[in-house]
Design goal:
single chain, mainly alpha
C-alpha cells in the first residue's frame, strides 16, 4: 500500500475543507472557490512538488485556466446564461406551464423531455436554473408540492447532459483526457446511444414512480424565491 505524500495529504485536506464550506449556507460559493484557489496556489508556491519526473508549482496550478476544455465550458455557460437572461426559451416554458394546468401528468412528462433535450446542447446548470422558478410557480398556484417534481426534473436534466459531449463539463474533460492519452477523437454524439438507452429506463421511472416515492412538502417551500409568472396568451 502506497502512503500518500505530504502534498497529496494537504490537497485532500483543502478539498475536505472546501466541501464543508460549500455546505454552509452563510458562506457564498464564489468566496469558497476563490479561497480554494488561493490555498492551492500558496501551497505549491511555498512548497513546490519535485518528485522524479513530476514537477508541480504554482505556475502549473494556474496554467489549467488556459486549458481549451475550460474555455469551452465557460463558453457553454455563457451561452446558457445568455439564453436565460434574454428569455429565448420562455415561449417553451409558457407552453409547459399551460400543459401543467391542463394535465399535471402530461405536463411533467413533457417537462422531463424538454429538460433532456435542452441540457443535451446547453450546459445543464443554466437549464435547471431556468426551469426551477417555473416548477415552483406551478406548485404555488396549484397548491401542490414542488418536492415531487424538482428531483425528477433535476435527474432528467443531468441525464440529458450526458447525451452529447456538450451538455456537461464531465464529458468534455473525458474527451480531453482521452485525446491526451492518444485515444481516437470522440465525437459529439458518441455518447448518445448509451445515454439514450439509460434514458429509456430513467424517464418512465422519473415520470411514474419517483413522484410517488418522494414526500409531499407544502407550506413555505423555498425562502426568498422569484416565481416564474406564466400567463396565457
Amino acid at each position: 500500500m502506497t502512503i500518500p505524500g505530504p502534498h497529496a495529504i494537504v490537497v485532500l485536506v483543502i478539498a475536505l475543507v472546501a466541501f464543508y464550506l460549500y455546505t454552509r449556507p452563510r458562506i457564498r460559493m464564489e468566496l469558497v472557490a476563490l479561497l480554494l484557489l488561493v490555498a492551492l496556489v500558496l501551497t505549491f508556491y511555498l512548497f513546490p512538488l519535485h518528485e522524479g519526473q513530476i514537477h508541480i508549482s504554482d505556475v502549473d496550478v494556474l496554467s489549467g485556466f488556459g486549458h481549451p476544455v475550460l474555455i469551452a465550458i465557460l463558453c457553454l455557460m455563457i451561452l446558457g446564461r445568455g439564453m436565460l437572461m434574454t428569455g429565448a426559451l420562455e415561449p417553451v416554458v409558457r407552453l409547459l406551464t399551460r400543459l401543467w394546468k391542463w394535465s399535471a401528468s402530461i405536463g411533467l412528462l413533457l417537462t422531463l423531455l424538454f429538460g433532456v433535450a435542452a441540457s443535451a446542447f446547453i450546459n445543464d446548470t443554466p437549464v435547471l436554473v431556468m426551469m426551477l422558478p417555473m416548477l415552483l410557480g406551478i406548485a404555488e398556484r396549484t397548491g401542490t408540492s414542488a418536492t415531487k417534481t424538482l428531483m425528477p426534473v433535476n435527474f432528467a436534466i443531468l441525464g440529458g447532459g450526458m447525451v452529447t459531449s456538450l451538455g456537461t463539463s464531465t464529458n468534455l474533460l473525458v474527451i480531453s483526457i482521452a485525446a491526451d492519452l492518444g485515444v481516437r477523437q470522440i465525437g459529439i454524439f458518441d455518447f448518445t446511444l448509451i445515454s439514450a438507452g439509460a434514458l429509456l429506463v430513467a424517464i418512465p421511472y422519473l415520470w411514474l414512480i419517483a413522484p410517488r416515492l418522494l414526500k409531499a412538502r407544502t407550506g413555505e417551500q423555498v425562502a426568498h424565491r422569484r416565481l416564474y409568472e406564466g400567463r396565457s396568451a
